[in-house]
Structure formats: structure tokens, C-alpha cells
Amino acid sequence: MKNKPKFLSFLLLLLGCSNDDCLQQAQSNFIKGNYQSALVAYECVVRNNPEDYIAYNMIGMIYGQMGNSEKVGKYIDTALYINSDYAYANLNKGALAAVDGDTVTALKLLSKAISIDVNYQDAYFNRGILYENLGNYREAIQDLRFSLMLNKEDHAAYYHLGLCLIKLNNRDEACANFTKSLSIFYTDEVKKKKELLCM
Q1: Environment class of residue 105 by beta-carbon count within 10 Å: exposed (0-12), middle (13-18) or buried (19+)?
Q2: Where are this protein's TPR repeats (predicted)?
């Protein structure tokens, strides 16, 4: 089984796999969670088109899913080198900076992702969480509310919005957000927090 990805790579090259075929294979395998096969197919994409910044970003994401943090940054950096205005890569690079504790860079990159795509829900959510972690609850609330305007079914955004509202002593609205979060997706964590703060 260990040689399967190498065989797939060889097969794709031997068959003269078109970029569209490789991309279709890559996306399909990524969605199914077949990360090794998706990686091989995305590598085929960048061999066919070395300027495909989306594929480089996805290779970085796959390495992240596979737990290879060393290669994540390398491929996301390559994507940004090719296209510094690719919002998704800015978000990913910002998330990496946040994990590394570099909140200044993280905020800068998440803000850049938002400036590139003003309707980028994930960027608002991630920046909101970062603001929450920094104790900047008003900014967090603003971003989380905007995130929810873009995706009214994001249970995690309701939960974190509730946490920030509690910090600003807005208990009633916080509890309403916990309830909304639970109505979308039940978790023991949210239930316990609601029971602790809202009963």
C-alpha cells in the first residue's frame, strides 16, 4: 500500500493526465479524505502548471491534514509568492501565525484576506476568534456578527459570540446565542456553558 501514491503519480504522468483531470482527481480525493492521493494529484497539477497558486495552497492544507506542519508553510508561502492577493492563502498563513503566537502578523493577514474578499466568512470568524483570545471583545463581537450575517448556520460563531457577550456583561444576548448554537449543532461544551451562565 505504501507504493500506491507513487504508482498513482506514475500512472497520471504516463497517461498524460490533463490539468483538469488531475484537478478533478485532487478535489475528489480531498473531499473524501484520501489526502495522500489528493496530494499526488495536486502535485500533478503544479507540474502541469507551476503558477497554480490554488493548488500550492491546497498542498499546504493537505500537509496540515496529514500533520506535517513543516511543509504547510512552505506551500502556502509559494501560493502567496505567486499571488499575494489570494484570500484563502492569506487566511491560512494568518492561522499559522496565530498558532505560532504571532498575533500581529495573524491579524494583518486575516484583515488582508477580508480586504481582498469582503464576504469571506471564514476570515471574519477566524479574526473574531483571535480578537476573543486577545481579550478584544468588542472587535470580536463585530467580526462574529458579520460572520453570522454571511452564514447564519455557523454554530461555533454563535457560541463564541455568546462568550464575548458574557465578558461584556450582556447575559441575555449571550444566552440567546448559546441557545441558537445548540439548536444548530448540539455539543456538551455549549450545553454546560449555557447551564453555568444562563440558569
Answers
A1: middle
A2: 121-154
